[in-house]
TrEMBL record:
PANTHER family tied to this protein: TRYPTOPHAN 2,3-DIOXYGENASE (PTHR10138:SF0)
Official protein name in the record: Tryptophan 2,3-dioxygenase
GO MF, one example: L-tryptophan 2,3-dioxygenase activity
Organism: Microbacterium istanbulense
Catalytic reaction equation(s): L-tryptophan + O2 = N-formyl-L-kynurenine
Amino acid sequence: MSTENERALEDGIVTDLKDRMTYGSYLDLDRLLGAQHPVSRPEHHDEMLFIIQHQTTELWLKLVLHELGTARDRLAEDDLRSALKHIARVKHIQEVLTQQWSVLATLTPTEYAQFRGDLGNSSGFQSVQYRAVEFALGNKNEKMLGVFRNHPDNLALLTAEWERPTLYDEFLRYVARRGLPVPQEILDRDVRQPYREHPELVSAIREIYENPSEYWDLYEACEELVDVEDNFQFWRFRHLRTVTRTIGMKVGTGGSSGVDFLQRALSLTFFPELYSVRTEIGR
């Protein structure tokens, strides 16, 4: 006999969990779900939203770094197909991260003002994983290392990304090994420097785009990288708009100019030649 609106447990379901690995223990949920510590006093209801929004972002960023690291390894091994699988996963994570801003956007200026002063100088500007993702994609900035000089683990993480070739570096090296004319100065460049556009590279990229049947995998890879940059810019824009609607033109908690500082990030690029080539195609 079944009880109305109640599902009976199947006989095979394990209910005696003593001395077994469980869902909670595998995911370390006691620690994960106990990591939210509002600082406002009295505690403001909406601070929990603010904390969880940023904590989940950091978890996704950790996975993005994991995938970008492996994608670069696969490119260095001439395994483009596997690299593209990891890049595709990054794209899906980016979509989640961008959509997530709509949750934080439910925080009104009045609500945020109730606990913003309790945050001190803590700011997303100080996210080492976000900076590491920027470094991995090409927006390197040695000055950012100084932000983490008092946190050895964070400094080590970001320094490793600063010294490592970017995703684009590894892709262009792979393109060169495929016989396309990538300028030697790009292949020999100091990877600790931010990637800057090289107009002479556009001809090699143009050859890929104008001969897709011959270079289909490279053609696909170029478009995948464009997707990654577009997604990153969408994320930056949604960040900008969410901050604008929440604090207006106030100075950021970390001391930045706030909206103006975020606006200038929209001019940064990762893969400039993949956009410049579009002007040349069909001429």
